[in-house]
Amino acid sequence: MKSFANMDMVFAGPCSAESREQVMETASQLSDIGITKFRAGAWKPRTSPGSYEGAGDQALEWIAEAGRTYGLKTAVEVATPAHAEAALKAGIDCLWIGARTVTDPFATQQLADALKGCGHTILLKNPITPDINLWCGALDRLTNAGLADIILIHRGFYTYQDSIYRNSPIWSIPMEMKRRHPELRLLCDPSHIAGRAALVEDLVDKAVALNFDGLFVEAHCRPEEARSDAAQQITPARLGEILRRISRRGPVAATAEMAVFREEIDKIDTSLIALLAQRMEVSRKIGGIKKASSIPVFVSDRYDKLLEACRKEAAGAGLDPDFAEEVFRLIHEKSVEEQL
Ligand code: PEP
Ligand code: MN
Q: The pTM is what?
């Protein structure tokens, strides 16, 4: 298990670069906690016009200055060729492509063309919709344009289902993306998944558990005053606490703890197999009686009762009843087969 002890893969910074003072203050506090990569939005894609849409070109100067002053690599979102050109000209080190842009193949292609041959690190967020092929397509557009240094970011997906999250973390999608592209680093953006500062820490823990390579996280020197995404931003000090806690856990302690539990699991599995064998033995005895007395092997009434009892037992034991039913359907099917 990794712990992001390598801070190089933790990008942090405000949702929006709002003023020179806010950018410098946030960058200074982040540098104090060991952050080396600074993110901030200059142009913000907002749902409604009239919402704060970022400081634009002016923001690039503040971000670049913060990078020089505190020795941070900088990252800015680019959504159009004009953004890309301005960010490259201002000396921004890394460019990220936001979820809305990745959702639109035309926009992604235009960016790929504009960035062709720039040699910069490109961070590619997942599209808003849970469509892995759209994410892969965007990646192909970038690699086809000769962009080789690409980092993927999981920032959650929009679904119609109610969720405590702003964007549901459908973890199987970034995991499949990592399986298809093991050579690429994969970051988790807990801020845009969470939508609320209180959920960020737990999402960071999940990202550690799932072996993500790092984070892309929003931090603001005064989150309550943020002009965009105020609810989900945390202070650099809070981020420092979270990072210190996960790095303290460390891979060695975690591996030792896991080894103890794995031993326990192995013992339980051995008992489960022995119990299953014992059950099958009893079932065969019943099969013998049925055969001798011409009683049918499959009695649907008994089957329904058995499954219902399993569901009840499972619920009482804190197990998912659907899972228990599925397991016992399999066991029952095999028993019937053995009795034939
Ligand atoms: C952001 O990182 O500030 C942002 C706009 O993210 P996303 O594209 O994931 O919504
Ligand atoms: Mn944001």
A: 0.77
